[in-house]
């Protein structure tokens, strides 16, 4: 299933009515790695959450492969995320008391029984590929880099077409961050997924196919990178 | 009125045990149905375990609060029933008591529970009339007023001792004026001697009978009543040491026990009467309810007392219900606050696309686990508290109070669990209404 992204006249407002984000038009081809940069408070994360159908006070259209999230009910949006979107957060957001394997296979907890085994298998496979060999241990004892790898495994476990990453390297040291973004980009490319990563980290968007810059809630540059 | 009374009436054709089980099932059924509806299709337990462990001390405190509130309810019900059963058991050997007219309750406390009271005496003619009434198998004078340390010294007959304790635990029945049979909890040994005081408690005159020394000849079996602390001596001895006739004509001066000679009978505060047939007791009560005598069944007086106290119990029950409602409201507020501790994790689940019903089931299961754990612990606390209070009450009153858990307590706990588990839907709904992005960024 090819899930190109098409945004038309997207506007996100604060409760006060102030415009937080305005994107008149944007298209992202399926399988592309898109970096989103910009200063703090520019609206990058608001943009990312809107792409997941989590934005409030929004208008316009956000269509993934013809499915406009804006016209879906909250439960239908959740179902879309469940099947098509994996998310990675800045501070991992793991269940510290669960094992790495259980965290990675979390989407299986709320999936149909038939899919649970598939998700658990995929989660284990991704953990292996990311070098997490001790999946049975609780993540309490893990380093930041290991935790973010578990979070990536969780994002990929349900085999979504889209991965949305919010500052995935912000909580990591330079060396760990470089390795992690390398692994993330490699894996989404290998599996033909779309990656949209919001980051302040040049090491992230130098690995992207395309980088947009958001300032004061508006896209001010859109650069397609070579190679 | 018992709110479960209509249900019991509807199933009164069942055996008693089946009725109690059915009521419990009916009470917990709403919780089971809600649980089944919330959990169908999901297995939230690994996440619930993680949430429980994450804030384990907070959760433990919450469970303890629920347990204490449940335990108070359980303990009070068990204790009240235990006290009722204990007082009834203590009064059981006293089929019919005849005394001078006055307050039945005062006389019952004096004759059955050995609480000191100044009461008029019955004459020898009355005693003779009672003792010789048809079908009377026992007419025992009960002459109280003396004491030794904390034990009342009561004058009566060997037949009365046998009525209270058919077999002695040790020793033998008194066979001499100055022998005594002691209750099971009296701190004397066989062969010990003691001098009684005139009166009881602080007002006792310890030197009034300094010339008298009783010797312990036997010990009764435990009766679970204040008589376990009593010392029973021949009534003749009580009369004699007070300078009165001893109940027998001079030619029978050494006789112990009935028959007594009305002309030499100094009087007794009360007579315990027993007959083979129940109807005889009723006939005797009618016969001796006169302007000179009062006849009453201690069991009936107790029942009337319970009935009177029933109003108080009803007020207490209403207060208990109000307390439970307040506790339930507290539990609810606590659950809403506890759920906020997990707001970020719940937001994560929703951001990842978990169905609302799954997130709902996580929150509800978490709350239900706390409530159920608190209720189970509460039953244990209630049982322990009731047992402890029973020991204190038994030690204070000498009435054996045995508080054990029974169906009313389980019904209370079942109703509490059912109500709170249903109300736990509220924090689950509140958790679902929280803004995902705000909680993710919190």
From TrEMBL, chain A:
Q: Which PANTHER family match?
A: IMPORT ATP-BINDING PROTEIN, LIPOPROTEIN-RELEASING SYSTEM ATP-BINDING PROTEIN LOLD
Gene3D superfamilies in the cross-refs: P-loop containing nucleotide triphosphate hydrolases
Q: Which organism is it from?
A: Pelagibacterium lacus
List the keywords (alphabetical): ATP-binding, Nucleotide-binding, Translocase
**Highest taxon in the source lineage:** Bacteria
**Top-level taxonomy:** Bacteria, Pseudomonadati, Pseudomonadota, Alphaproteobacteria, Hyphomicrobiales
Q: What is this protein called?
A: ABC transporter ATP-binding protein
Carries keyword Nucleotide-binding? Answer: yes
Query: What family does this chain come from, according to its entry?
Result: Belongs to the ABC transporter superfamily.
ABC transporter domain sequence ranges: 5-227
From TrEMBL, chain B:
**Entry keywords, A to Z:** Membrane, Transmembrane, Transmembrane helix
Q: Which residues form the signal peptide?
A: none
The reply on keyword Membrane is yes
Q: Where are the transmembrane segments?
A: 21-40, 60-78, 315-338, 358-390, 410-432
Can you tell which superkingdom this protein's organism belongs to? Bacteria
Please state what the protein is called. ABC transporter permease
């Amino acid at each position: 299933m090819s899930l190109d992204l098409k945004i038309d006249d997207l506007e996100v407002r604060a409760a006060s009515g102030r415009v937080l984000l305005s994107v008149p038009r944007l298209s992202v081809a399926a399988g592309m790695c898109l970096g989103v940069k910009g200063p703090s408070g520019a609206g990058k994360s608001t943009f990312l959450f809107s792409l997941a159908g989590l934005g409030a006070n929004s208008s316009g259209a956000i269509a993934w492969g013809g499915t406009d999230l804006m016209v879906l009910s909250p439960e239908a949006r959740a179902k879309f995320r469940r099947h098509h979107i994996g998310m990675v957060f800045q501070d991992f957001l793991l269940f510290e008391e669960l094992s790495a394997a259980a965290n990675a296979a979390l989407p299986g907890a709320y999936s149909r029984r038939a899919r649970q085994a598939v998700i658990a298998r995929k989660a284990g496979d991704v953990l292996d590929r990311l070098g997490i060999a001790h999946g049975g241990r609780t993540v309490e004892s893990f380093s930041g880099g290991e935790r973010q790898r578990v979070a990536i495994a969780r994002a990929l476990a349900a085999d979504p077409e889209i991965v949305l990453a919010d500052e995935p390297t912000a909580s990591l040291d330079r060396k760990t961050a470089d390795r992690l973004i390398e692994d993330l980009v490699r894996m989404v490319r290998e599996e033909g997924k779309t990656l949209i990563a919001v980051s302040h980290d040049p090491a992230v968007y130098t690995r992207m196919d395309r980088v947009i810059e958001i300032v004061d809630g508006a896209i001010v540059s859109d650069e397609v990178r070579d190679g | 009125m018992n709110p479960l009374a209509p249900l019991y009436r509807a199933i009164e054709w069942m055996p008693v045990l089946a009725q109690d089980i059915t009521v419990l099932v009916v009470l917990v059924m709403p919780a089971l149905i809600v649980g089944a509806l919330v959990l169908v299709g999901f297995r939230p337990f690994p996440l619930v375990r993680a949430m429980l462990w994450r804030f384990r001390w907070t959760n433990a405190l919450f469970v303890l609060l629920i347990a204490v509130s449940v335990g108070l309810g359980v303990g009070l019900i068990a204790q009240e029933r235990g006290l009722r059963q204990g007082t009834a058991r203590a009064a059981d050997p006293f089929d019919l008591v005849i005394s001078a007219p006055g307050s039945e309750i005062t006389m019952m406390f004096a004759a059955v529970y050995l609480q000191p009271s100044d009461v008029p005496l019955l004459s020898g003619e009355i005693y003779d009339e009672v003792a010789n009434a048809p079908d009377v198998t026992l007419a025992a004078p009960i002459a109280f007023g003396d004491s030794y340390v904390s034990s009342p010294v009561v004058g009566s007959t060997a037949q009365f001792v046998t009525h209270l304790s058919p077999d002695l635990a040790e020793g033998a029945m008194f066979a001499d004026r100055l022998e005594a049979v002691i209750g099971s909890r009296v701190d004397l040994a066989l062969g010990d001697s003691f001098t009684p005081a005139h009166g009881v408690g602080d007002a006792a005159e310890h030197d009034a009978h300094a010339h008298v020394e009783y010797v312990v000849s036997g010990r009764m079996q435990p009766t679970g009543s204040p008589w376990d602390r009593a010392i029973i001596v021949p009534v003749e001895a009580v009369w004699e040491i007070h300078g009165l006739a001893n109940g027998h004509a001079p030619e029978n001066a050494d006789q112990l026990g009935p028959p007594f000679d009305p002309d030499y009978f100094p009087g007794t505060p009360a007579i315990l009467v027993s007959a083979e047939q129940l109807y005889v007791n009723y006939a005797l009560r009618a016969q001796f309810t006169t302007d000179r005598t009062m006849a009453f069944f201690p069991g009936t007086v107790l029942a009337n007392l319970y009935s009177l106290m029933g109003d108080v119990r009803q007020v207490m029950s209403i207060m208990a219900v109000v307390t439970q409602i307040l506790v339930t409201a507290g539990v609810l507020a606590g659950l809403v606050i506890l759920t906020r501790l997990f707001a970020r994790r719940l937001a994560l689940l929703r951001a990842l696309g978990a169905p609302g019903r799954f997130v709902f089931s996580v929150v509800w299961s978490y709350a239900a686990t706390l409530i159920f754990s608190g209720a189970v612990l509460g039953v244990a606390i209630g049982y322990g508290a009731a047992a402890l209070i029973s020991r204190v009450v038994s030690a204070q009153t000498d009435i054996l109070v045995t508080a054990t858990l029974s169906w009313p307590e389980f019904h209370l706990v079942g109703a509490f669990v059912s109500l709170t588990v249903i109300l736990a839907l509220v924090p689950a709904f509140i958790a679902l209404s929280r803004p995902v992005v705000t909680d993710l960024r919190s």
